[in-house]
Specification:
6 copies of one chain form a homohexamer.
Chain A: E1 16-20, E2 28-34, E3 37-47, E4 60-67, H1 79-82, H2 87-102, H3 106-109, E5 112-122, H4 127-148, E6 161-169, E7 172-175, H5 179-182, E8 187-194, E9 199-206, H6 213-239
Parallel strand pairs in A: 4-5
Antiparallel strand pairs in A: 1-2, 2-3, 3-5, 6-7, 6-8, 8-9
Helix pairs in contact in A: 2-4, 4-6
């Protein structure tokens, strides 16, 4: 078995930190770190819902994702300056939004919209999985705030969701790929799961070689273990 | 076991038709039909490669996807008129492109770019999986044309790729969801596989309820069987 | 007199086919073919009118036009990807919309909007004239559907409109230019007429040399004859 | 015969003024007035040609058109602020460009591009025909300047082009419609002709009612007479 | 003391002309000239206010700025064609809007919006200061028109505002820089003042070298004198 | 004399922190805090210069500015999602860029471009002045890195620049306005100065009332004192 460049065991995730109340204005705000990957997640509560939901007595949760231009090894053009969000950005923010909505009872939310902004301060692989993991905590905090303010009666959060990247690197299934692993992985898979271990999203992509059924199972097993650990982190921060 | 609205068995895909040489100008052109879903796939060969590949002696395969405004039940705004491609469009065309590249030896292609346009004439669920399945045939035809023209010596196509949607509907795993099933599925999963049964992409999304490990396995089994059948269709058309 | 490359007589149009009910979802849908030129025309009925017409008790008919990227000899960039519709596209869709409205009594339509999408599947000259000719049939079908549904009492279609391109090629007036003729024509003229032989639009452009009054008259005579034939095709299809 | 609101005879055009050297920087610059319609036309000479012409030893002439936001009765949104040029703007600037190129021998121009900007200071109907008429003078001046500078040897201008709007108003053919006539015309037709009386562009549109062959002939006769007068104005200004 | 290229004294501004009623449609319209710099300023009155002001019983004044493509020495790309307004344009139109609002009692205006368009016909330095100076007169005329029409009872104009550029050129403070001075100035400063000599905007920029406190004072003294003269011009034109 | 809401003296700036090496990838990276205002400034070095500078043997420094959507009290729409940068953003990033270039000898930089990204993590007034102050430090660090890498021989930084906002609040000149002061200030002025006390930019805006010459002088005196203090902070961080 090849050793990982990082010295980590195959099933070992990077040190995880979730710092609550990272900024002052948002109703929920955390800085989530998976090793050197740092993402600021803020949850903003607004009255009203998008047009397609009006008058249905339910709320909405959506997400936006962005990378600061120099969060990456070499500078990326600013999407605001280029005048549009790229395909990868759209794909990721749609994924985060779907993942968070899967954890919610939107009828209990009432006609409010919560927008969770996930902005990458520093990238070292796994920004989308860190974002989902942090966003869920920011969302939980915003919901607590809404309850304290009397805006909602029952907490709409049904479960916690967390996410991890797994992959095949040098023929071995590994968890929580950092950038150097990610860029040479044969397969890269992002898994979003609930606290109960059910799957919300599974997105596996053969980057360099197709993957077999057994490899898929090996990666999923790593994902389940990692998500369990991430949910523990989330619970500690939410409990405060 | 609930019967499917269509009367199909759980593992039964819709009638598949792949019509070659559907238009005159493209180097490869097929109309692919999965039941009422109809997608026109054209492969266009152009000299040169994108900037990031120049001088590396390899080629490129990319895809674009679009839906005609009234391919759907109610008319959608034309993306060209709105001034941008939506997130779903970008997500799908990136998926098609990655899937096709996974079937290719890009060094054998030399410094050519093949663009496969997948335009949905009529939609009834499964447009992205039909698109990938048809696009692979259009690509194969274009490569045959290049060989006949002496532009390439060895065929760069390493395998065939095909795709199918599977999902959990009324608690049952089913293959090749049509629109009415898709819109009420608990889980929707798109699987892209090679002719050998290895996985290129697995994208499972819990629409209404998280899915369990066993459900994932049941859906994957259906996908494998369906892809086998699709590859048979592809082979017959390519053999001509 | 030079023979036409196609072997057609100067006043001879290409074989015309109008296939009704080409797709399932639209209220009116035809595939129109002028030789190798193929355009899919779908008419979509929606409740309501644009802002500038609200509360005036009349309806609206508008058109959009697009070319599939590889409908042409060499691939064109997709307008949705470039982020805007080109000048030619806008010019043509405005022309189609005006032509259709000239055939309508918009007060009889009531506060509905009918959008006719004309998408070119394959181009070989004359796409805008084929589009107008097919769009009128799709519109007629959609109006029949509205009457059957009880949405309108009286049919708002006052007449049929059809269109043909005529031009000066090698000093000779010819009808229904195909691509190879179009690209070397001295003058290109598109004529939209009613079933009664009155003119809706006349757009003549000197491509290579100015045209004289006599040449204009010669081209108009060809147009009148061709439109008569096209209207016969339309009538047969509408009669069903 | 109904009298025109303006008191003009049916074939009488508005007072025409062409003021040369209206601004300092452009190589050619005129303010053209057709009654209250005022358009500033500037011709700018630049080295080089667009990509599609490179290395072919010929030049290019193109035009851009714009209306100042309050050139019209009620203020229009500024196109630069809306982020795109509308369909009418594109249609008109393409028309101006084609008209000017029809007057040019582009090989004699050499690898230069001349851009003629036509900006409407005040609109009262006929802005595009005034623009073409003025643009041709600005172009002539720019070509004279190029000859004086030794940039070209032979003058590439083969003829003069001028344009007029004609139409059917209250059942009568009239020339040079002002805004109040234009807005109630049954048919509106713009005719671009050479000094020799040949046609460059004919664009007739039935606004309220189709037009007959005889009406077309009546309108063309008015156009010919008006263009003759306009060419006289152009000649006087160019002769200086 | 170096003589200015223009022969003007350090505190001498260029000949100023303000031509009222320059166009017919706008409620206020002036052509303002500072030497060769010519800007058309039109004020348009519209019922209603922007969303953020609705229901507050006050009005709004805003400005837009543009340069005709060949108002400058070499042709600039048209902003409408590029699809966006540049940073300089936005900066200037925000400046003009703020300056005009500083002269207004917006409550007296009632729920109307006045948009002042400043379009540069010819540029020779100082276009933004000429624009502000002319825009204030166009605004005054529009307000007079509103009073005459009975739309407002009391004139909302509290004072006149005018603007001048000053700068350090060759170590000397000078007023009203023309293009050749502007392009070599060490410091460029735009000052907007009221008729009473108070400051609305001061924007000083070190182009080539930082400026000292004394230089700032010297420039401000020139600005005060110049604005006094400009206000005299404004008063004469408004008095009519 | 009114006391400030914050309890600060009129000339007292908020606690300033400049944290160096805040992120890993950028050649220079600081988090600058003026009280609750927090801006991340990263300097990125790239080979080459913009087109307009090519072949002139000098370098370029430019800046971009952005606010995270929930850096503010209520959430702002993300500029990347809206498809363009607003006028305020453009104005600020142009200001930062000019200020930094004023501190540089661009010929000593050689043909490199340094882009300084200033992203607001949390806003409480004074984001642009904090950004300039932090950006200068990030720039200094990037230049040190270039020297260490042997990319430049002599340090191109001629001086340090720092910036502060000053204003008239309740009739009193105060330094370093926080959000609650800023929103009720009569006048708001941003001053950029060199370490030597010379002025780079002075931008004073009368928000609620014009300002007098004496008020201008009072504000400038506060700015000079504050910039002195900021430069001390910069020096300590750069010295490391």
């Amino acid at each position: 078995m090849t050793e990982r460049a990082s010295g980590r065991a195959a099933d070992e995730i990077r040190p995880v930190t979730i710092t609550p109340n990272y900024t002052r204005h948002a109703e929920g705000s955390v800085l989530v770190e998976f090793g050197h990957t740092k993402v600021l997640c803020t949850a903003s509560v607004e009255k009203g819902v998008p047009r397609f939901l009006r008058g249905q007595g339910q709320g909405w949760v959506t997400a936006e994702y962005g990378m600061l231009p120099r969060s990456t090894h070499s500078r990326m053009a600013r999407e605001a300056a280029r005048g549009k969000q790229g395909g990868r950005t759209m794909e990721i923010q749609r994924l985060i939004g779907r993942s968070l909505r899967a954890a919610m009872d939107l009828e209990k939310l009432g006609e409010y919209t919560i927008t969770v902004d996930c902005d990458v301060i520093q990238a070292d692989g796994g920004t989308r999985t860190a974002a989902i993991t942090g966003a869920c905590v920011a969302l939980a905090h915003a919901l607590n705030w809404m309850q304290a303010e009397g805006m909602i009666v029952h907490n709409p959060l049904k479960t916690l969701v967390a996410a991890i990247s797994v992959g095949m690197v040098d023929g071995q299934a590994v968890a929580d790929l950092e950038y150097t692993e990610d860029s040479k992985a044969e397969t890269d898979m992002n898994v979003v799961m609930t606290a109960e271990g059910n799957m919300i999203e599974v997105q596996g992509t053969a980057e360099a070689a197709p993957f077999s059924h057994d490899e898929l199972l090996a990666m999923l097993a790593l994902a389940r273990k990692a998500v369990n650990e991430l949910v523990e982190h989330q619970r500690r921060v939410i409990a405060g």
